[in-house]
């Protein structure tokens, strides 16, 4: 008889005294990581990166698995009594204790950067994502801008400290040297001859961003870019330009991208309408450009979410009635009971959701 079997009678006995609560609900008061219902993490350290960004280290509870370099996780925080979720890239080396680096843009990121302290509890989902290092060693090019550096930083930390055959060219765009994330660490790593070359492209000094509408900047900065596996993470315009350029150069198969926003069609918003959240007993008027996910969160509804890009399927909610428009395709659809991706759907008339 294994240990779990021996403990079951004790758990059943304990439940007699804790009903209607589960025994772990009381254990959580002593150890906040003990919950079997919701994965949590304890903040262990907060490092200030810039005046408006911070790296938050945390110790996850059971249910977490070691992340691969480049992956992300959903992070939940309670704001004004409502649990809000956002997805953040994990910035420590693959397999190491996790951390996220957050820039204070939006209510959740503002709270994380300016109000998080050691000992605080974060709500978590396990690491996920396919923006990861190639299986076999090869020369790499990393093109990033702003917070797009965060998943790539995990890759850099994984490679240059563990692989003697690392060959990484990193081109990072930032507005100023002071706001360039990880600038000192990157320059230090590059100076140690660990196979890393860093090109900081400061738009405030150059007057423009690194240009991917032609090959001029690439040819001047990384002449062998066509032979490298390339990872791109940053603003949508930057990613779109990279896709077009690599396609024109017939090396699109060597391009790996990470988007922080869904691909949507121009002018593909729905007509808008009243969105009713049945279980939450709330409703709100939403225009044709506001996703059902954003509409729910703005109304104080605890909405399931994940990548917020239409990829991970974590935001699925049953449709009770009404029609919605998919921002990626412009298609209007809606059958009773159909699961709707709320992060990429808008109201095409009145909508009733089972949440």
Write a structural description.
The protein is 24% helix and 30% strand. By secondary structure, the chain is α/β, with parallel strands linked by helices. The chain folds into 3 domains: 18-124, Elongation Factor Tu (Ef-tu), domain 3, CATH 2.40.30; 140-258, Rossmann fold, CATH 3.40.50; 273-353, Beta-grasp domain (Ubiquitin-like (UB roll)). A 6-stranded antiparallel sheet has the order 4-3-6-1-2-5. Strands 12, 13, 14, 15, 16 and 17 form a 6-stranded mixed sheet that branches. Strands 9-8-7-10-11 form a 5-stranded parallel sheet, with helices on both faces. It is globular. GO terms for molecular function: 2 iron, 2 sulfur cluster binding; metal ion binding; oxidoreductase activity. InterPro entries: 2Fe-2S_ferredoxin-like_sf (IPR036010), 2Fe-2S_ferredoxin-type (IPR001041), Beta-grasp_dom_sf (IPR012675), FAD-bd_FR_type (IPR017927), FNR_nucleotide-bd (IPR039261), MRET (IPR050415), OxRdtase_FAD/NAD-bd (IPR001433), Riboflavin_synthase-like_b-brl (IPR017938). Its cofactor is FAD.
Report helical residue fraction.
Answer: 10-25%
Which term fits the overall shape?
globular
Name the CATH superfamily classification of the largest domain.
Nucleotide-binding domain of ferredoxin-NADP reductase (FNR) module
CATH topology of the largest domain: Rossmann fold
